[in-house]
From TrEMBL:
This is ABC-type sugar transport system ATPase subunit. SUPFAM superfamilies: P-loop containing nucleoside triphosphate hydrolases. The keyword Transport applies. Residues 12-254 form the ABC transporter domain. CDD domains: ABC_Carb_Monos_I. Coiled coil: none annotated. The keyword ATP-binding applies. Belongs to the ABC transporter superfamily. Keywords: ATP-binding, Nucleotide-binding, Sugar transport, Transport. SMART domains: AAA (SM00382). It comes from Labrys wisconsinensis.
Amino acid sequence: MITTNTDRPAVLEVRDVSKSFGSVVALERVSLTLHKGEILGLLGDNGAGKSTLIKALSGVHSVDSGEIRLDGKVVNFQSSADARSHGIETVFQDLAVFDNLNVIENIFIGREESYGRFLGPLSFLNRRKMVEQWKRYTEVLEVRIKDPYQPIGLMSGGQRQAVAIARSFAFAGRIVILDEPTAALGLREKRNVRRMIRRLAEQDISVILISHNIQEVLEVCDRATVLRQGRNVGECEAIPELQEHIVSMIVGASAAARHMDHRGPAQ
Ligand SMILES: Nc1ncnc2c1ncn2[C@@H]1O[C@H](COP(=O)(O)OP(=O)(O)OP(=O)(O)O)[C@@H](O)[C@H]1O
Ligand SMILES: [Mg+2]
């Protein structure tokens, strides 16, 4: 079991971020820190604000207040392409791929304008290299994609998810954010994705993994942070001994409340 990487430099710092949709408060002064090469599990019940938070981190949503820092500098991403250009790759829960485009088009969607700043110009050679890299990842994930030129809408849910995951791994710069990446995958593919996440972290890429599967979080993540009703309720090492504690934070049992009273909110 790998212990926390919290002594390593912070790559991403979220401070007091709030976001409302009309009268719905999705995030209320949420903070988190992601360190270099760390795998952070982001947990919480349905509607806790997890997807909203990662959409704010990846340029899909602007925030109402608060601050996001990347390598210590305040950032204000205007779009997901903008976030990508800063090395943040995200696999969204709901917008993972575009069904009407083929696999290759999906790999490069929105990338032409964004590629430049962080990784250099997206030349023909670079494109070929990225496709090869992406292919290698699909092979490692043991996902068989017969024809990369067929519309992705004709593929199974698991295959589509695998295309998006392999894409994020292939382009990973600083941070990979995965929102329920393994939900539609078979057992073997799930195992491969977890292994790949570990490998990314070994290469100093930081990962945020959203998952409802607590076993998966305990197996893959270094640390877990929990949201409930749009707020931070605590964080801890992702170790089996703390499973019950993590569950109680997610569901808001009195045990979690006692813990918070005792320790104060997580920093
Ligand atoms: N675009 C939106 N417009 C209006 N309300 C939204 C929007 N996106 C999210 N919300 C609301 O914000 C709250 C947080 O939603 P969010 O999708 O972030 O939850 P989640 O933790 O990702 O849940 P799940 O585990 O079900 O994916 C919910 O009350 C949701 O209805
Ligand atoms: Mg969600």
